[in-house]
């Protein structure tokens, strides 16, 4: 498996002959596209048609729970199965600054794939597919720039799938209560902008 991981990495990883525009594009994917996660979470909670607001907030909370599970699982796996990054062992070429910490599973991959799987399961398939494409772009870019292995990204996807399953199970037990309590806190903290109509109640 390790030999396959290295072979796939070297096949994807950029070289000194790679075009500058492709390096720049990969850097954008690797650093900036992940910002879609907090932007969508905030936007779906604060705005939207009144008829869809409850379902949007259920989506936000389920996704948030799944992300918490995913990050916790990722942290545990990183400590249980430490794995150096490619540049830490002198393999391939590195085009993105990164600390030489453990690489498995990828945090970026874990977050974006958890988000994509959550949208496939609890929103609409097309929106999840779009996010999955964004996840594939992020995964490619971080391998291309030399800071992750292919199996780091696969690990992130599997963690995301497991985390969405755990979130769905938890929601069956306390989802309604969680939504009600967080909605009450939200209305208390954001009473002023709600009263002005800037955001939804």
UniProtKB/TrEMBL annotation:
Coiled-coil regions listed in the entry: none
Keywords: Hydrolase, Membrane, Transmembrane, Transmembrane helix
EC number, as in UniProt: 3.6.1.27
Regions crossing the membrane: 20-47, 59-81, 111-139, 151-171
Domain of life: Bacteria
Gene Ontology MF term list: undecaprenyl-diphosphatase activity
Reactions listed under catalytic activity: di-trans,octa-cis-undecaprenyl diphosphate + H2O = di-trans,octa-cis-undecaprenyl phosphate + phosphate + H(+)
GO cellular component, one term: plasma membrane
Domain Phosphatidic acid phosphatase type 2/haloperoxidase residues, every copy: 63-168
Name this polypeptide is given: undecaprenyl-diphosphate phosphatase
Source organism of this protein record: Erwinia sorbitola
The gene coding this protein: ybjG
